[in-house]
Design goal:
homodimer; HIT family, subunit A; 2 domains; 10-stranded antiparallel β-sheet; 15 strands; globular
């Protein structure tokens, strides 16, 4: 082999198939198609209209004037001015109600889509979570927890999904920053897959799968983005999206609703810093984040471990992903983590 | 209750949770947010550049001039001019090779992404499958089958995914119509879920789940889009996307590669008519379609049933879908099917 060929061989990057430790799902890290982190920076920031004109008509700046339903939760500051409110969604994906009615059609099975669909709204029209201070983010987590606890024992509710869409291309139809809470009668396939995987891992290893991940990431360090006393933020080994980040409590806890007030401040810090690093280093891209916690269906899930997943919108699902459920990522999670770790916020 | 209220009550549409018969996954049919079929029509058709200038630089119109790799399959007409060619992808998501090498990192597991990634290219730059005649579409299915049979017994290949991205927003980076074939060492989570569900259904009912679906849809009729002697095209009961269509052989057959030449012409007709109905009635929207067939990992899958799924790009996955895997559709599959059934092609 000539020197030149050897060099080429050494520099040749192979595609990798990486397996998620919990679900067993695969992702492709297409290192041969890889881009440098800088190539992911978003240069088009015109999609969110934060002009004063837009704000004048904003549903969430002026909820009474624009006919929002009565809020189900309101937080106020020392001057008695509101800082955060939770509204029932005027166009809910699930209809309010407690009666689950099953129906059949031939071989098929269906039920009425009863549940709750609420919007968690912070006051400032122009400040996404990345730009809030730690205390304001802790207030958001407070609201998530308050509403979770209020809804978790309702008859029709077996799982509560809390998520946040940032920018239009991530599905945010209203530019004013807001999160959504959807309380539903079924346990979603993704949560089911995590629950089953965590159970299986525990049976084999007598140890929580997520604890094993958090411990390895801390020890190993190369995928860590941020860490404080109680939480670790890292790019997962089998990242599905470029610059994906998971935020996990270091101490085992299946249930988000049991997070202490002290822990909440640290969770808020980890979430805010992670989003700020994405915002600053990638030019404010669209993203989704969501919370995965044990179901509230009356059963115990001692081997689950609640966490937050942040998915920047850096890629498009095409035929391969839609058909297989295997995502192709064009940056190594280690390179993404290094880039985010070094980002100044 | 006043007359007015009664009317309102009667007209009130509830959200439905519908379950996929095979996988057990749920979808939400948000009838309360429903739109009329006409509201889904795409009015912006500027995204595909089919100008003569673009064609001059086209990789697939001029494969030799633009440095494509040597084709692995070529079909020609009576004048010996090519009509269809299959090229290895210059930028494969999987690296060619037969050796599967496993690696570990701490608690994690990975393997080298070996496999095959090929592009099936029809001649006409400006004619998508919807615009081809039945015989030309049958030639495309022929090429799928030829390449499938050639790769299915390779050492590194356990599953072969065949898919087609139409338009840029569905992931087609090259405007010239082409399908992709990806032969991989792992069985994808989506196929696994269908295999497990079909197996379970057979155990309970001593009948193929997909046969049960095809029989019910034919009998019931309201979700049928098109039918010929051998194939049925219908909007599935638990559609994940608006105007989703499944194409299924009426006769039980787990293995796409065993479809007869006679059946292939009818499959081609069902695929072409379905795509033409989407093209004509919805203003040429972006879509993906893909083929699900039994794995080629040396095992038998007698209870699977091969089929094609077409997913028009009518919605955006946001936080809820990404987090739960439950999709929210804003048109009833029955209304979508009626609209497509009536579309003239």
């Amino acid at each position: 082999m000539s020197e030149e060929n050897k060099k080429e061989e050494k520099g040749k990057k192979f595609t990798e198939l990486r397996q998620d430790l919990v679900t067993g799902d695969w992702v492709v890290i297409a290192a041969n198609r890889a881009r440098r982190p800088e190539e992911f920076i978003v240069h088009d920031d015109c999609e969110v209209d934060v002009s004063d004109d837009a704000q004048k008509k904003c549903f969430f700046c002026y909820p009474e004037e624009t006919g929002q339903e009565k809020d189900v939760l309101i937080y106020t500051d020392a001057k008695n001015d509101w800082t955060l409110r939770v509204f029932p969604n005027k166009y809910p994906a699930f209809t309010r109600g407690d009666e689950i009615s099953h129906q059949e059609e031939g071989p098929y099975f269906m039920m009425e889509g009863v549940g709750y669909h609420e919007l968690v709204v912070t006051r400032d029209h122009k400040k996404s979570i990345a730009l809030l201070d730690k205390e304001a983010v802790a207030e958001v987590l407070d609201a998530y927890q308050d509403r979770y606890i209020d809804l978790m024992n309702k008859k029709s509710v077996n799982y509560i999904e809390i998520f946040h869409n940032h920018k239009k291309s991530a599905g945010a139809s209203i530019p004013h920053p807001h999160s959504q809470l959807v309380a539903i009668p079924v346990i979603s396939p993704y949560i089911k897959s995590e629950l089953d995987g965590a159970e299986e891992y525990h049976k084999m290893n007598r140890h929580c799968a997520y604890c094993a991940v958090a411990e390895w990431e801390r020890e190993n360090g190369k995928r860590v983005v941020f860490e404080n006393d109680k939480f670790i933020a890292f790019c997962p080994f089998a990242s599905r999206a470029a610059f994906e980040i998971w935020i996990m409590p270091k101490k085992h806890n299946p249930y988000f609703e049991r997070m202490s007030t002290e822990d909440k401040l640290e969770a808020a810090e980890a979430l805010q810093v992670s989003l700020a690093k994405i915002y600053e280093s990638l030019g404010n891209p669209a993203y989704n984040f969501y919370l995965h916690t044990a179901p509230c269906d009356g059963k115990d899930y001692p081997h689950f471990h609640w966490h937050i997943e942040i998915l920047p919108r850096t890629a498009l699902w095409a035929g391969f992903e839609l058909s297989t459920g295997i995502e192709i990522s064009t940056i190594e999670p280690e390179a993404a983590a290094e880039f985010l770790r070094n980002a100044k916020v």
